[in-house]
Amino acid sequence: MTPLPTIDTAATAIVVLPLVCLCYAYIGYPLLLKGLSLLHGRRPRAEDPQTWPFITITVPAYNEVRTIATTLERLLALDYPAERRQIIVISDASTDGMDDVVLRFAECGIELLRQTVRQGKSAAENAVYPHTRGEIIVNIDATTIVWPASLKALIREFTDPTVGVASGRDVSVGSADESNQGESGYVGYEMWVRRLETQVYSIVGASGCFYGIRRHLYDPAFPLTLSRDFASAILAREAGYRAVSAEDAACGVLRTADLSSEFPRKVRTMKRGLQTLWYKRALLNPLLYGYFTFFLWSHKVARWAPYPLLIPSGVALIFLATRYGEAAALLAVSLIVLGLGIWGMRWPATSRPPKLVAIAGYAVAANVAGLLAWSQAVRSGRGSAIWEPTRRT
């Protein structure tokens, strides 16, 4: 067989490399985890502690006057001894009257810590640390719906002395008739991967909407523009602990009704993740961190690496399509998926798209968000710590 010319070989490599990375990250890696989990066996179920530890629940919030009362009522109703928990709402200089609503719950023991200047979520979490009294600090977002039994299920994981961080299991919650259906499937997939990682060793990032961390692992000087929930698992591993996903600690995460509303959050989350990984890049050394490094490369790097290659990969595919029928067919399929994805991204929020359109829309949105996140992460350095929260109904 005559070898391909050098320029064709290079173009083929540029097209194939991101596909190989994504196939490994989303298919090969979970299959490897599944095999390793069978070797490790089922993890024993955590038992109730003799005495439930004193915990602090922190709720960072900005202008959540619509939801904060319902959130606090749900927190007070959680199945956990009231004398063994502290609840603090950190208001990031809210201006919509939310603080007044929180103060009405003072007689129930809920505390308000108000930031006089808006500085972002990480700054609020740094500021609350001196006011916390719990052995374990639990972060809950203001719009998260925590099932009544989930708090005990989360704290139960800390009876294992090797566990430094426990993350809740996200359940995507929304209308069956809205357009953003792809997110629900992705969340379920992500929770499955975390369950496998937990069975083998450790997850590489916690759910920012509901997770707990041992007090001595909490960093009160965490950089304001980075992702604390992602970094929490890294901080635990640096200190010799594991981070786990608590299967029974379910929480409802409200999804936006359409992809266009969710898109800015995807860009921001990935950008902060990239910057956090660079900040903690020492964890990418397998000689120092073993299994965890393998998980980090597979779960994060292999997913994020293809995005900067999207444009050169597209150009290379167009070039190859003028020379080879196989490349032309792949280009045609790619354009069809792109068209379906754009259609899915523009689908009205009040109706449910066909499943193929929903999946394509979610995939295209994720890839475009990844490309923008890389661009912003490289250009803006640490960037801004402040953003407008994604409002969900």
What topology emerges from the helices and strands here?
Elements (H helix, E strand, L loop, with lengths): L5 H35 L14 E7 L6 H9 L8 E7 L6 H6 L6 E5 L6 H8 L7 E5 L4 E2 L3 H7 L6 E11 L8 H19 L9 E5 L13 H11 L3 E13 L4 H21 L6 H19 L5 H12 L3 H21 L9 H26 L13
Parallel strand pairs: 1-2, 1-4, 2-3, 6-8
Antiparallel strand pairs: 4-7, 5-8, 6-7
What is the element string, with H for helices and E for strands?
HEHEHEHEEHEHEHEHHHHH
CATH architecture of the domain at 55-257: Alpha-Beta Complex
Helicity, in percent? 40-55%
CATH class of the domain at 55-257: Alpha Beta
Task: Give the neighbour order of strands across the main sheet.
Answer: 3-2-1-4-7-6-8-5
Indicate the overall shape. globular
β-strand number: 8
Distance between the termini: 60 Å
Structure explained in plain terms:
An 8-stranded mixed sheet has the order 3-2-1-4-7-6-8-5, with helices on both faces. It has a domain at 55-257: Spore Coat Polysaccharide Biosynthesis Protein SpsA, Chain A, CATH 3.90.550.10. Strand 1, helix 2 and strand 2 form a beta-alpha-beta unit. The longest helix has 35 residues, at 6-40. Helix content is 49%, strand content 14%. It has helices at 6-40, 68-76, 98-103, 121-128, 150-156, 182-200, 228-238, 259-279, 286-304, 310-321, 325-345, 355-380; strands spanning 55-61, 85-91, 110-114, 136-140, 145-146, 163-173, 210-214, 242-254. Helix 1 packs across helix 6 (182-200), helix 1 crosses helix 10 and helix 11 crosses helix 12. It is of the alpha/beta class.
